[in-house]
Amino acid sequence: MHFLRVFCDANGNHGNVLGVVRDGRAFPDEEARQALARGLGLSETVFVDDAHRGIVDIYTPGVRLPFAGYPLVGVAWLLGLDRLELPVGSIPVRRADSLTWISARAEWVPPRTLRQYAGPREVDALAVPEPGEWVYAWAWQDEAAGRIRARGFPGRGDGIDEDEATGAAALLLADRLGRAVAVTQGNGSQIMAAPGPDGTTHIGGRVCTVDNPAH
């Protein structure tokens, strides 16, 4: 197991903790993988099925996902590849300065409700909603500069009441807004997202290793 902190800040703080099983053959079927993801209790766990070709498999504690943002940024950083392969399609990877970026299509993102609020204080004051729809609550911190405050509520009832950082939701928001954004999510996670020239959207951020996934 590798544990990574994805979308951390420049000091390696915050970010959403990701579990990566480097050799997916250790968990050969969906039932075994789901059981491990449930036991770890992280927002997502990734199983690497082919480290050379970038074939990966993503699970929450309750479901298998065809696509997710922060797990792909994290595993791209760990494997050092230029491309990842998912059932939905190929995911190009690039690196710039201290950031790892992936490119994906907004239609690959599972259903998300993007809910805008008047300002960051309203977002900060939100209580965790009852299980139901996946809500990405956001507000402009500085609209001219593209700076956004956000919180993510999966609404799945699987023990993850709030996601510290959600790349797929930030990708969807940048696509809907049609502009580059810098998102501060959760307690201070940093997510960059920007529409691309070919119908894709780019999301990127910093990744670091973490010894204790509980912190």
From TrEMBL:
<dbReference type="InterPro" id="IPR003719">
    <property type="entry name" value="Phenazine_PhzF-like"/>
</dbReference>
<protein>
    <submittedName>
        <fullName>Phenazine biosynthesis protein PhzC/PhzF</fullName>
    </submittedName>
</protein>
<dbReference type="Pfam" id="PF02567">
    <property type="entry name" value="PhzC-PhzF"/>
</dbReference>
